Each structure stands twice: as C-alpha cells, then as structure tokens.
Amino acid sequence: MELEVNDNNFEEIVLKSEKPVIVDFWAEWCSPCRMIVPIMEDISTEYSGKVVVARCDVDNNPAVTVKFGIRNIPTVLFFKDGKVVDKQVGAVPKINFVNKLNALL
Q1: Which one is catalytic: 5, 22, 33, 73?
Q2: Could you tell me the pLDDT band of residue 79, with boundaries at 50, 70 and 90?
Q3: CATH number of the domain bearing residue 11
Q4: Peptide bond before 62: cis, by omega within 30 degrees of 0?
Q5: Which residue among 3, 30, 37, 98 is the active-site one?
Q6: CA–CA dist 98, 103 (Å, integer)
Q7: How far apart are alpha carbons 33 and 91 in whole angstroms?
Q8: Best CA proximity match to 97, nearest among 26, 11, 22, 25
Q9: Is 30 a catalytic residue?
Q10: Cβ–Cβ under 8 Å, residues 37 and 44
C-alpha cells in the first residue's frame, strides 16, 4: 500500500524509516504521473515489508518539493537511511524502478 506523505509527516515516514523508501512526487493534472501509478502500486505489493512506497503531491506540499529540488514530475526519489541515493525523472518502464530499488536492498 502506498502512503501519502506531506510537509508535516515526510520526516517521520521517509527520513526516519529503517527500510528503503521510494517517494513518487506527482500532481493530479500530470498525465505521465498517472501513467506510473499502477507501477508504484505493483512495487508496493511486490516489495511489501521490504520497502516503503509513498506519494507526495507537489501542489499541496511546497516545503518538501522545494527541499528536494523537484522541478519536473513525475520524479521518484529513492531514500536509504534518510538520504536520497537515487532518482528517476519521467514515466519509464517498471524495470527501471525495480533495478534502482534492487540496488538498495
């Protein structure tokens, strides 16, 4: 299950997580963002218990968006031990996300 993260809970859910975290930065109006929703849902199910999958709406969470320099969406950041260790910008095939994720496990 994907978690919704925001300016208020981002630190607790993402930065303090003991597991790797994938954060999908998106917006309602963004077509490519909608294209990767099923991919993130699949990853959330397949990696349940190993990885936290989260979404952050850039329009409603400007502090987190600015803090991580999100300029294009979708942008997916990969966190480990509270630090960004990889990123993927744009709608790409599932294997791209899986390869980056497997490198963290």
Answers
A1: 33
A2: very high
A3: 3.40.30.10
A4: no
A5: 30
A6: 9
A7: 7
A8: 22
A9: yes
A10: no
56 catalytic residue (yes or no): no
Neighbour count for residue 18 (Cβ, 10 Å): 8
3-state secondary structure the chain: CCEECCCCCHHHHHHCCCCCEEEEEECCCCHHHHHHHHHHHHHHHHCCCCCEEEEEECCCCHHHHHHCCCCCCCEEEEEECCEEEEEEECCCCHHHHHHHHHHHC
Query: What is the per-residue pLDDT across 49-73, written as a single tens digit (0 to 9) for each?
Result: 999 999 999 999 999 999 999 999 9
Total of domains in the chain: 1
Strand order in the sheet with 75-80: 3-4, 52-57, 21-26, 75-80, 83-89
Q: Which two tokens stand for residue 92?
A: 């790409």
Q: Specify the pTM.
A: 0.95
Residues in the chain: 105
Q: What is the pLDDT of residue 33?
A: 97
